[in-house]
Write a structure and sequence with these properties.
Blueprint (H helix, E strand, L loop, with lengths): L2 H19 L7 H8 L3 H7 L3 H26 L3 H17 L6 H7 L6 H22 L1
Amino acid sequence: MNSTTATAERIMDAAQRMVQTRGYNAFSYADISALVGIRKASIHYYFPSKKDLGKELVARYRAGFRDKLDQMDNKTDDSRRKLKAYAQLYLDALRDEDRMCLCGMLASDIATLPEEVRREVVDFFADNEAWLAKTLD
């Protein structure tokens, strides 16, 4: 991972932690700057607006969550075991510094989210609904 990618990942990691513990509307680039130890201008270099950061953050989270669902599908055909593993994903988030599901936290701010971020959040839940329907079928 090059330093540019590493810096962007550190920014997204800090933003994700804040969204999962405080919510989207309760953090700023100044908060990220203090956590990551870089200037706000550097954050704007990677993510020109909070909307851009939010969209990338949810896209990364969705992809990671989909990967975990795919792993469950590849591991077993037993629907009960899959559903237990699914619930465990949410429990694991809670056990990690009392964090909530990223998209669950964002859903609580849905009325105030930028359209691009809102669309990603809605798609996250659509992915989950489709997986659950397939698993229960």
